[in-house]
Amino acid sequence: MTEPWDLIVIGSGASGGWVAKEAAESGARVLMLEAGRRLDPVQDFPEPDHEGGSRVSILTRVVAILKGQQVQARCMSYTPQTAHLFLNDRQNPYTTGKGARFNWYRARQVGGRLHLWGRNALRISDFDFKAAEHDGFGDTWPLCHADLDPWYTRVEEFLGVTGEAARIPNLPDGQYSGPHPLTRTERRLMAEMAEKWPDRPATTCRIIHHMAHRTPPPLTAAMATGRFELRPNAVVERIETDPETGLATGVTYIDAGTRERVTVAARHVAVAASTIESVRILLNSRGDRHPSGLGNSSGNLGRYLSDHLMVFRAGTLPEIEGMGESHDPYDFGQQSGIYIPSFRNVGGDEGRGFLRGYSLLGSVGRLEPGWFFMAIGEVLPRADNRVELDPVKRDAWGIPVAKVTLTHSDNERAMIRDMNASLKEISTTFGLPDDLLGRESLIAKLAYKVAGPLVYTPDGALIPGSSIHETGGACMGTDPTRHVCDADNRLHDAHNVWVTDSAAFPTNPFHNPGLTIMALSARAGACIGEALKR
User: Fold this and answer.
1) What are the two backbone dihedrals, phi and then psi, of residue 233, each rounded to the nearest 5 degrees?
2) 115-137 residue pLDDT tens
3) Is the pTM of this model over 0.85?
4) CB 287 within 8 A of CB 246
5) How far apart are CA 473 and CA 488, in angstroms?
6) What is the spatial distance between Cα 477 and Cα 358, in angstroms, rounded to a whole number?
7) Which CATH number, 3.30.450.20, 3.50.50.60, 3.40.50.150, 3.40.640.10, labels domain 5-116+227-305+470-533?
């Protein structure tokens, strides 16, 4: 085809699908490039063939290493039934900076990591968009909740979200199709929390409907327009730019099967490959007008990488209600029940030794061993936490790999101590047995002890990257000398390139980033459609 596509979207996950849907429905001709394969709704989602098919054993880990998934097997969602939904680490390596550890969990297939996530749909409040105005650290977002409200609503109504209005100031309410079901134990616990923790308002989790048909609904909507083409097994190498104007002219990718290098022309390009991969592509897209990477005139492309702090506590219960006989083993959203948004530093610095806050998410009586709560906290964006290109190492297609550096500061370590104290308080205050390994064998307990350093920091949090909530690297803001993207997710250096995933987040509040990724992407897709009409 000699005529350029109106839009090329790189990536088919949470971000890419929404950009493609909104742009195609606005009349744009859209080509989507996905590095992985198409999934078969039957073959790729079989029922577990034995009891414990969703459990991780020592044998599972050994097989994973032999298969080349030594990093992916550390993920909490990695089981015998989901192993094929994670990529191969030998083909897709990465490196880390000196003294830094980072677990990068990835999925290369149509739909990306949407097949593995818990679907928590949380709106970010203005208190968190504008946190720097309260505590003086870093940048504020160049937008507010009112700017995203119609797009939050559009995503919620299209996908469907179970939940309930709670009128909690730092957790804006959305549009819900019905309540999120709780177990009997969770309902009792919610009532106790209201009585004993009045300063920590709890609500039910807010969960996007499970995609039982396995194809993300935004992709189905884009296909229905007749103006959309999905091209799988297309490993993007770089974005091509005009040497005179600096604008994008197209995308070069490598066919994963034939190893043929293909360049496709486009009027606009949306980078939606997930935070680290999107930054890697931009850094590798050097040109006459972009000698240090596309969008890097500020020198901040790749900087201010963040990922949520995550601390777990769990234990056994004598009775487990389960998730129903018709439970889909690939429905990870049903594992969540109770949600408590951040209650720290909401009214100002509480003198606990850290800025910002963390939320608590729990499940009681749903799955083995019985109950868990996790604390999910904000990591402050710092310039030293970054993504670079490794000067030597290449992936299976000869493309420079990402070098990731993300370490915790004193702020994060102080927050982890407070997280541990709050989780212990849940156990003691509400009578939940604190015996995570209570039902495990001696061999399993020894294995956890040996493998612990691969998953946990010395102070008990998951190693950076493990929450799979990475953000930053192409931060949005109003100053082209400091920020990579503008308030509409466009590169300051090339206005026909849009970074629509969480690489554009200037901060990483305690909320799960999924809903905000989708809302920003939907907004960007509509903006692209309007730009093409003009």
Assistant:
1) 55, 35
2) 999 999 999 999 999 999 999 99
3) yes
4) yes
5) 16
6) 24
7) 3.50.50.60
